[in-house]
Amino acid sequence: MPKEIIIYCRKFMRNILFNRAQMAIEIAHPNSRNPSKKAIREKLSKVYKKDETAVVVYGLKTQFGGGKTTGFACVYDDLDSRKKYDQHFRLIRDGLADKVIKGRKATKELKTRVKKVKGIEKAKVRDSANKGK
Amino acid sequence: MEEKEQAENPQLLQNDIETFGTLCKEMNETLEESQEKLETLKEKLTKMNETNPPNNSGSNTFQYIDVKSMLLLNYVTSLQYFTLCKAEGKDMQEHEIFERLSYLRLIIEKLKPLDKKVDYQIEKLLKSALTQSQGESVLPNRKQKEDNLKYRPNLNNFDSKHITEKADQNMVTMEGEGEAEGEDSIEDLSDGSGDEKKANPDSSDIDPDNINSDDIDSDALERFAVKKQKAQAKNKSGEHINEEEIYKAVTNNPMKMVDTSRKAQKQREKDQNRMKRVDLVRELKHDMLDLPEEVNYGIASGNRRLIEQEKEDEDLEMKYFKRISYTVKEQKQREKKIKRLQKSDYSGITDGFHDFQRIQEFMGKTYGGDEDEEMQKHMEKEKFLQEVRSRKRDKKSKVKFLDEEINSDEAGDDVLFQKLPNRGNKSGTGDNKPKKGNKKRFKRRKN
């Protein structure tokens, strides 16, 4: 069965500061399950003629009964601008950044060390701790 | 003795004789003058007493002058007697006359300060007498006012209100001494001066007619004088404030305290608005009143809030390109609401049951303002409770109560029974006391 997906873009806005275009998406997928983010990204990149990796899709919610989902999308100009401006957890979702897994105790110790110091030295303490690792 | 004196001091005698001569001359002259003056004084004073009603001040001065004149007379006569004796050449070393002379002299010197105070009055009296005799064309009222301003300030003319205790005493001591002299005999003064402080304050009041010199006490005199003054002041002052003019607040109808606190009002308005939303009330409104209906399809009362919130959420999400997340607490509440709605799908029946409760609560509420309302509702409540209790006491009625509950259609989904004592018996039997375990359950159900 062919999976038809129709995407409607609403509330389109061109955000120059972040080098992106942000919009709200409405996807109609009758008689099929919820579309994956990948599929949506492909479609959007074709439409706006940008890299697949530069497109972000998030906040998808399907209506009760199926057939319709609503969500949001950001289409960046480049991958680089995306890496620069996009939120960290979204990059992690797409595999473009690594999650830093520190032990619970380690983070708490770092926190106490940072608290004792004031101002710019906090950043120094953090860097030294990270370098140590 | 006489020959010895003449032989020893002939010069002193001559000197004495010369001085004696001059003194006699002076005495004669002064006597003549004083005689004239006294005559005139007497005439005028008698005239004053006849024409005008005798003022207390005037009478006091008259008495004082009388007394003073008598005193002086006595003194002068005794002096003359003394000179006579000396001229005859008697031995004056131990003579009775000296006592007399010294006594009188004492009194005169004690009266000297009083003399000053009375002098002013005497002068004024003389002047007024002369002016009256000369010209009587001026109106008496005007003249009185003018004369009053000319006079020296006098405490007696003040209102009785202004008289303080100290002022009373000061005035009274003056008046007391004057009156004492006029009424007492002269012999009692020397004895009275020492006994004034020992006088009893509880002695009876004085009558001006029946005065015995032995019965008078100084404190009683003072009180009498104060009374007189106050009576004087009242009679004199024409500006006597009537009691009608003084404002008195009305005390017949006590005003009810209107509680303007906004809290009670706010609560009342809140509850009224709540009742408007109740479906039952709205239906009743449609039935009773002839207002046009407002129709809302698909929205039951319980859903409205949720739907509104959902709308709001959507708007926000669209605005900020973000999905809204709730805290765990809020999520649970929402789920509860949704469940409730899902449970009661026959919305018309069960919602009304809930509304009945609401209406009852609303009717029973009081907002602290009106006491009458509170009393009424309290009485109604008590009545209802009494009925319920009386039902419960009767054993037979108890069973009926339960049966009614079971059979009624009004009890909807909210009324559930887990265990009943006798389900099969509709008529009712004797052993229908619920067991202890059942009692607890019944109680819970009520809550």
Automatic annotation (TrEMBL), chain A:
GO cellular component terms, semicolon-separated: ribonucleoprotein complex; ribosome
Tell me the InterPro entries matching this sequence.
Answer: eRP_eS24_sf (IPR053709), Ribosomal_eS24 (IPR001976), Ribosomal_uL23/eL15/eS24_sf (IPR012678)
Pfam families from the entry? Ribosomal_S24e (PF01282)
Q: Which GO terms describe its biological process?
A: translation
Q: Which GO terms describe its molecular function?
A: structural constituent of ribosome
Q: Do the record's keywords include Ribosomal protein?
A: yes
Q: What is this protein called?
A: 40S ribosomal protein S24
Automatic annotation (TrEMBL), chain B:
Keyword annotations: Coiled coil
Q: Basic and acidic residues bias located where?
A: 159-168, 259-277
| Region called Disordered, residue ranges | 131-216, 258-277, 412-447
Bias category Basic residues: which stretches? 435-447
Extract the coiled-coil ranges from the record.
24-51
Compositional bias of kind Acidic residues: 176-190, 204-216
A biological process term (GO) from this entry: maturation of SSU-rRNA from tricistronic rRNA transcript (SSU-rRNA, 5.8S rRNA, LSU-rRNA)
Any single GO CC term annotated in Swiss-Prot or TrEMBL for this entry: small-subunit processome
Establish whether keyword Kinase is in the entry. no
What name has this protein been given in UniProt?
Answer: Neuroguidin
Q: What is the lineage of its organism?
A: Eukaryota, Sar, Alveolata, Ciliophora, Intramacronucleata
